[in-house]
Amino acid sequence: MSTTRRFAAVLVAAGCSVVVPGRALASGFLTDQFGSDHGSAAQGNAYAVYFNPAAMAGAASTDITVDTVVAARSVTFNRTGPLSPGIAAGTAGSDATNPVYTSANTGQATLFNVLGAPFVGSVLDFGGSKFRLGIASYIPFGGQVTWDKRQQFANYPLAPGAYDGPQRWASISAQTSSLYGTIAGAYRFEGLHLGIGASLSVIRTGVIDVRARNLTGTDDVIAANGGLGEGRSYLNVDGVQVGASGGLYWEPSSKLHFGASYTSAPSFGTMRLKGTFKDLQGQPTAAGQNPEINKSVDLLQAYPDVIRVGATWRVVPEAELRLEVTWQRWSQFQNQCIVATGTSCNLGPNGSSSSSNVILNLPRNWQDTVRVRLGGAYWVQPQTEVFGSFAYESSPVANKDQDPLLFDSTRLSGTLGVRYAFTPHLFGSLAYTYTYFVPVTVTNSAYGGYAQPSNSPNENGSYSQELYVFDGAVSYVF
């Protein structure tokens, strides 16, 4: 095929990727599970556009890949005390002693969500030259949550909000995604068996969040005068960022390949997402109207930059070992701060702010994580590859900072898959990954201890989670 036709094919694939809708699929934000065991810093294929642009130098020819990830996520949260009442005992309608308050705010919350995310990417070899051009679209950060309802509280007049579950102060429903459009280039120094590469991405990030909220930042469902005290908040923001990556790829022999890459955070630090924030309170005023905040706002938050190193070793012609280590700098994700449009987030050590521009802050205080994946592949026939791996990933969240929306813990994952060559040019793959999250019990939740505008109800209780991921891909190589 001519170089012109190859380039046209790449552009067609990239154009299709832009219009494919999708939602990302796991807890936290970094959900780059497309490619399964074939997505790494040391493998030269279409996934290298994201994982390590330099590894495109190891691609033997043009590669067009369409990949779909489908995941089912199961979470259980059993909320317990200490809770966060704002009304003192003995006050009319006292939450601290009211059984309605206790039953509305404790008990089990569950969800089972099935979600999907696409990857479409291409690597062009320019007819076997030393240059490689890559282009791809994908969603490496994201998530979507919808919690089950508690039917025993349907149409319950004393605490109607309890229908949304005891986790509602942290999450009723939410979705976030960062859609990347990436162009990457690589060059191969043949004599050194070395590749270098870099990429530039345009990113669109959006966040929608619905949760229970009252003006005091507590979990009161009954006001001091005995009326309804629980309200709802709604955040809808989005924005466009840029990001970049760079890497190295080295083949010291035909059997041994190494790769290393650095991927920046969106906006190279704090991103600013613009939109609206609505906060409708449950207790009517003397005039009989529910007080409502409806403002144009910015959400300030920071995602991690990521460092990856990987290696593959073809032990014998029929078998290969694969190793990858990933460092995610989640220590940059300290707050999710909602501010008046165009202003900054100035916070004291206890989460307080002297500025009226800070409307609401959600302290996160996450920490860096490490992921280690060890796997291998065996070709039972030249056209049939069976692969598998085991992975360990540390938790970005300390126990005191856990909440139902962003619950995460130490992860243990296992993957099994197969890749089959239907023709010398057409390949298909299917993989399944099961991820077990080590259960966590929280008794020292930090949220109720912050000052306004950073305080929110404590999220003490027991957390558990499982994730089931299916990845399917079709690749055309020529």
Using brief descriptors, characterize the structure shown:
single chain, 478 residues, mainly beta, Porin, 14-stranded antiparallel beta barrel, 6% helix, disordered N terminus
Task: Explain this structure.
The chain is mainly beta and 478 residues long. It has one domain: Porin (Beta Barrel), CATH 2.40.160.60. Helices cover 6% and strands 50% of the residues. The chain is built from three helices and 18 strands. It has a 14-stranded antiparallel barrel with strand order 1-2-3-4-5-6-7-10-11-14-15-16-17-18. Strand 14 and strand 15 (384-393) form a beta hairpin. It is elongated, with a radius of gyration of 25 Å.
Structural class: mainly beta
Largest sheet: 14 strands, antiparallel, barrel
Q: Which topology does CATH recognise?
A: Porin
What is the strand content? over 45%
Order of helices and strands: HHEHEEEEEEEEEEEEEEEEE
The CATH homologous superfamily is called Outer membrane protein transport protein (OMPP1/FadL/TodX)
Q: How large is the count of helical segments?
A: 3
